[in-house]
Amino acid sequence: MVNRECGVFFSTYAADMRLFPLPLTRWTMVGIAGLGFVVFPLVASDYFLNIANLVCIAAVGAIGLNLLVGYTGQISVGHGAFIAAGAYAGALVVTRAGLPFWIALPFGGLMAAVVGAFFGIPSLRIKGLYLAIATLAAQFIIEWLIIHIEWISGGAESTVTVPKAAIGPWVLDTLLEQYFLNLIVLSLAIVFAMNLVRSPIGRAFIAIRDRDVAAEVIGVNLFRYKLLAFAVSSFYAGVTGILYALYLGAANYEQFDIATSIDFLAMIIIGGLGSILGSVFGAFFITVLPMALRVAVDGAVTAALFLFPAANISHVVQSMTAVKLILFGGLIIVFLIVEPEGLNKLWRNIKDYFRVWPYSY
Amino acid sequence: MKGSKWLVTVVASIAGLLAFTLIGAPVADGQSKEPIRFGIMYDQTGPTSVWGVPIVAGARDYTRLVNKKGGINGHPIEWVEHEMGYKVPTAIEGYERFKAAKVVAFWAWGTPIIYALWERATTDKIPATTPGFGRADAADGERYRYVFPMAASYWSQAGAGVKFIMDQWKKEGKTGKPKIAFLYWDNPAGREPFPILEKLQKQEGFQFKSWAVPTPGLEMSAQVQDIVRRYRADWVITHIWSKAPAISIKEFKRLGFPMNRVVSFVWGAAEHDMIAAGWDVAEGYYGMQFAGVGADYPVHREIAQMYKEEGKTPPKEMFEISVGYNRGMLWVGVMIEAARLALDKYGWPLDGAKLQKGFEMIDGVRGLEGVAPQLKITPKDHEGGGYVQIFQTRGGKIVPATDWFHGYRDVVLEAVYATKEGKK
Amino acid sequence: MRFLLDELPFFLELLVSGLLIGMMYALVALGFVLIYKASQAINFAQGEFVMFGGFVVAASMRYHGLSLVLSLALGFGAMVVIGLLMERLVLRPLTGRGVIAIIMATIGLASILKGLLLLIWGPLSVNIPLPIREEPVEIFTLLVKLVAVVGAIISLVFLAGFSFLFLRSRLGIALRAVADNQTVAQLMGIDVRHYFALTWVTAGVVATIGGVMWGNMIGADVHTALIGLKVFPVVILGGLTSVPGAVLGGLIVGAVENLAAGYIDPFVGGGTKDFVPYILMILALMVRPYGFFGEQVIERV
Predict the structure, then answer these.
(1) Which tens digit of pLDDT belongs to each residue from A46-70?
(2) Which residue of C has its CA nearest to A322?
(3) B270 secondary structure, DSSP code
(4) Is the ipTM of this complex over 0.95?
(5) How large is the angle between the packed helices A342-355 and A276-307, nearest 10 degrees?
(6) I want to staple B263 with a disulfide (CB 3.0 to 4.6 A). Which of B13, B15, B286, C147 is the partner?
(7) What CATH number should be reported for the domain whose range is B32-152+295-360?
(8) Phi/psi of residue C30, each to 5°?
């Protein structure tokens, strides 16, 4: 956080290109990891562990979507469908083939990647809004396939019950154990994504985002990299799906509908497009916002009933829940207008402030 | 930077509010005995909001009535309320709140949500109720110990629907077998009745064909046209919800199909569906109910009296959407009944495991005479018999057309217990 | 041959009702296209516009006992205000931002409109009584819904009106100039903001009419907004920037939907109605990336 570049000099390219060039940043990372892995689990109750779990799982998917939308500039409104594809693929591997979850995770991811790449094919011909709506088609088609192919859905309920993750005899069935699993996966996801975007592949992605025609002219293979972006993004989505399935104990496609896709889009826009850290912030924000609003509304109901004892409590509650929707929409709009670059920018502002603190100029 | 300051304020205040609620736990209001807490999870902003409003209103009024009369053996009932907008992550958050608040039972609102929560509920030993929806095979109480799909699952509704049609067919003195069309919502909940319907078709020998209504269910002219003009069905069973029931009523009317040949499952037969379609258009329409309809039962008079004493008027839902309002009373009524039974037998303090036993002793719901169906829950049968009552829309009112009954219980139960050894 | 003859009336009926429904989709899609054409803004809240406009009319009639004409006027008024506010408070600050920012802002608006409706009137569905007969009309043994016919006629009237507006009037020329190149239009002395506001207002009015027609067919409540999902294949097929394209897209989607429900559903176990238009849309996009009538964009580095 407190990045003092002063007095740090690099004498090799390798040193200059390290993920965290500054010694202090590295220590900060160790500190954050310590907070996440040691301090938080020690103090948090089940309620907060559950929220942390949901945030970790969502963050993996948000990073994936950001790689596609924020880094490669291809809009996708079908992320929910890719999550569902991964969830079912992983769930089937666990239940049918009886394989452990650590095989199901990459397998489900790969399956989702294949599906995602397939639905990414139109991106070669179309872009912008046309592409966004073409990916919306993925949502409808995948949902339909899941419901109607019994081999996938396992019967009329379209729900595959998944046993809890287990390493040998050790079953991860408490929220705390699941938290460690989710946090480790999230850490891996962050590290992989950070390295990906500073690799040649990542630079190709960014070139495509900035101007795909220009990128093609300088020799970026659009076909390969666009599909790769869809595949990587969907891999992340697939992993999110299996994490959800393991966490909830079931893969059920109704949990991954259009609203899910839109929530993920909201995460990366609010977090900051083209920012890995921003995706995590965004996942936190969008997961916690409804909960925070509910808390606020509960408070408002109490206050309203105190002030107007004659009011019918059912009607007060009903009105206040409607206010929740208005606040949710309003906050998103205000956020978009006030902070175009998202939470990540906010974070950078804070960082920049402390960079020269206390000798600001 | 100006914008950022604003944002910092918002983020900080949200964090503060969050901390506030978690620390500021519910304060007891001077009651002599400790309260019994129920987890009330519902949706008033999502796709099921049209049900969420009347159901919660009914449940709240009935809870207040019970509290006014001294609660459950002197223990007041306290709600831990959670509006979750039909979103699974928010619902799980609600469940964890319930767990932290030590609720003894909770509503799991909606099919995806019971799928996401039943395992946790079983591990934590907190009974979940899913009246009128949820997985039908959860009626098997030995397998799903903490799930109570009370009143009537979709399987029981299918049995009852077919029985009603066969009875009517005989009553009208027709020969041969009826041609039945099934119009269903194309998702897991909508497809759930299939095993029962297919089995009954084999057993009873009627003609049967089905039509799907995909989400969002706003338009079904092709399906209805097919049913009326090509298949020429004698009877139609519909299993659709949201806006779809009203739309189907209008479509059938437009194609001249007699409305008294349509039977709807429980989520397509409320006053709001008739209002949306127009009462005169829906004249004759049959619908299944797992709670009484109307505001003429004794309990309604008591609630009206309670409001009068408070100097207020009862909510309009009580009269206008009595289907939802009464279901809300039933939903919370069975929890109260279970708590009462558990308290009588095992005494204070109550917990989820005791309440689970309480649920399994339910035989009728005291205090909700008329509103509640015949309901006898046993450790083996968590559904309580699968009774429904069929009502008909007549003259701007929903009036009873049959008594409480269940159809082909043997077939339904066979399916419930078959899944245990079956392929799943 | 015998089979075909038996099948023909049913086929025709499906087709006709599909086409009519398609025109009703077009009614919703028109507002969407209008906004996109003028300002390149994508209105994900189109369904909510239709819902809100229709509901204001419905609520005025049912809850406040106003006449249809007065209610319509109120509905138009409400949507004009919302359109203006949207343009002024949300889209103007977002000018020049990416596609996704605008998508997200309109999704936020959708949530606000839903919340407003629930807050003011609650979730109950309201029927909009129109002086149109509920019973079907038989034309050459085909049963046809009168509402849908009226809806189709309104769609056509709008199509003609907008075509005239865009091609002939001074206003239309200005609008086309704005759509073509904002900077140049501004240099030519066209008040771009004024025209943006005008399109949002027009879209609001069209949405209200769509809302009333759909409200009569399916009842008005928050779920009416889901009709917005049907708009996407319609506008993409027709081309995002074309008014006649929206009508053509509507016709195709309506017909294909109905025929799929009639002829594909029985073989695959139902439910194809919803996604067949999307598949068709993807296939069409592979051949014509800008829809049937959409403006081709020539890219240069």
Answers:
(1) 899 999 999 999 999 999 999 999 9
(2) C115
(3) S
(4) no
(5) 100
(6) B286
(7) 3.40.50.2300
(8) -55, -45
